[in-house]
Each structure stands twice: as structure tokens, then as C-alpha cells.
Design goal:
By secondary structure, the chain is an all-alpha fold. The chain contains three helices and no strands. The model has no long low-confidence stretch (mean pLDDT about 85).
Length: about 70
């Protein structure tokens, strides 16, 4: 449905630490979910739209997690 909704309106989010979440296997699940999605669209949904919405720099180094 990504074309019906519009790629500019989609972003992936995690619902951890709930017991029914996919963590710590989220990356494997995302690989399955996005298996047939072109790389540019995958990047837009997983990175681009999130950075645009939250005004984040996707090239900035991440801070360490405490």
C-alpha cells in the first residue's frame, strides 16, 4: 500500500520494549518486510522521512547509547 498512502508519509518505528516486539531481531524482520522494496524507497521509509520529520542530519555521527 506504500504507493496508495504515499512514500513521503511513511516511516518505520519500533515498539520496544514491549514483550510482543521484534527486538532484538528487528533488523532481520525489516530485511524480510522490505525484501522486494527498491533500495531508494527502503532508505526513504527507514531514514529519509524520519530525518526530514524530526529535522535530523542523517550523516551526523550517532551519540553513544548509555
Amino acid at each position: 500500500y506504500r504507493y496508495d498512502i504515499g512514500l513521503d508519509l511513511l516511516m518505520w518505528g519500533s515498539d520496544t520494549p514491549h514483550s510482543i516486539s521484534t527486538y532484538p531481531n528487528s533488523r532481520e524482520i525489516l530485511s524480510e518486510l522490505f525484501e522486494d522494496v527498491p533500495e531508494a524507497e527502503r532508505h526513504q521509509v527507514l531514514v529519509g522521512n524520519v530525518c526530514k520529520f524530526f529535522d535530523l542530519d542523517p550523516d551526523k555521527e550517532l551519540t553513544p547509547t548509555p
